[in-house]
UniProtKB/TrEMBL annotation:
It comes from Paenibacillus anaericanus. Keywords: DNA-binding. One of its GO terms (molecular function) is DNA-binding transcription factor activity. Pfam families: TetR_C_14 (PF17754), TetR_N (PF00440). The lineage of its organism: Bacteria, Bacillati, Bacillota, Bacilli, Bacillales. It comes from the Bacteria. This is TetR family transcriptional regulator. The keyword DNA-binding applies. InterPro entries: Homeodomain-like_sf, HTH-type_TetR-like_transc_reg, HTH_TetR, MftR_C.
Amino acid sequence: MGLRERKKAKTMTAIQMHAMRLFREQGYKATTVEQIADAAEISPSTFFRYFATKEDVVITDNYDPLLITAFENQPPHLSPLQAIRGAMISEVAGTPEDELEMARERNQLIMMVPELRAAMLNNLTQMMQLIAEMVAKRIGSKPDDIAVRTFAGAIIGVNISVMLYCADHPDANFATVLDAALTKLEDGLPL
């Protein structure tokens, strides 16, 4: 990452950290974009250069490029499910503890606030498309193939179940729960 990208990522993280602090102190609905911008020592217009809406300050992360790289680096002999599992687990395992704590807090907020859950649906739909594109490229198919889309949808379903579980069990280790859930999927979902 170049200097400009690092500075942008640092500013984005600072805005999110101040926003999460304000949400803890005042509640999500009572916190305004102006208050977040003031706490982060930026203007509201700068806030909107980083986040289109207040919901986006909670929903947005920088993990997609990392997931793509981790997926592409998985050994070619792995099945698509094994490769996506390896990529997701390696990315969560490689995330610093302070970032994981912020992700846990964001996840709990998303599950508690209806507006954030709705915004997250759009984010998950985009992630489903990203997974479909990665898998299609790996297997020589098309992202709109129904089998590829179904596979990507199953992965998103696992993510939703893990997010809900971890929101209800804040002490749960996200990587461990995600790994167990993806293993269940790989085993054919025995109950």
